[in-house]
Amino acid sequence: MSKPPVSPFDKAKIVAENRRARYDYFVEERFEAGIELMGTEVKALRGGEGSIAESYALVDGDEVFLINSSIPEYSHGNRMNHEPRRRRRLLMRGREIAKLHGAITRQGLTLIPLSIYFNTRGRAKIELALARGKKVHDKRETIKEREWKREQGRLLRHNNG
What is the pLDDT of residues 67-119, one digit of tens each? Predict the structure, then answer.
């Protein structure tokens, strides 16, 4: 299995990445969605804080929610600060949501976040992936492939240098 192509989304500043996602899942398709955030959440993200390591997305009726993502409280926030692990609504088109709902229910796929970033217009976006979970032997195969690529790079550097 080859590496997925470079993201077509316009990522000016990446805030949080889910690196484990590509190890635990086969990424089938990727989507970009907006995130409905409170003011202090935007400020915390601009400061480079936030984690999506154990999070996932859930289609609930005609809405999509990001569950278990963590955006720590903004350090200069007052009593109106946000709750760090609240459900955040994701902003997507109705047709995309229907497609995701169908894929999740019929094919047993999972909706996982790959990264949170700001685009060139300064909007907070999230890259979601429709993914299929890997079995243990698939993960071993991924490790073998990664180590072989690393070894190839070493051999090439050694022979050329």
Answer: 988 888 877 766 767 777 888 899 999 998 888 888 888 888 889 999 899 88
Place of tokens 């990264």: 115
Determine how β-strand 63-67 pairs with β-strand 56-60: antiparallel
**Ranges of H-type helices in the chain:** 21-24, 39-46, 94-107, 136-160
Q: Which of 85, 120, 93 is nearest to 31 (CA)?
A: 93
- DSSP-assigned states of every residue in 4-16: PPPP-S--SEEEE
Q: pTM for the whole thing? A: 0.74
Question: Which CATH number is associated with domain 13-134?
Answer: 2.40.280.10
**Domain ranges for the chain:** 13-134
- Three-point CA angle 68, 78, 41, nearest 5°: 35
Tokens at 99, concatenated: 């497609």
User: Residues 25-50: pLDDT tens digits?
Assistant: 888 888 999 998 887 888 888 888 88
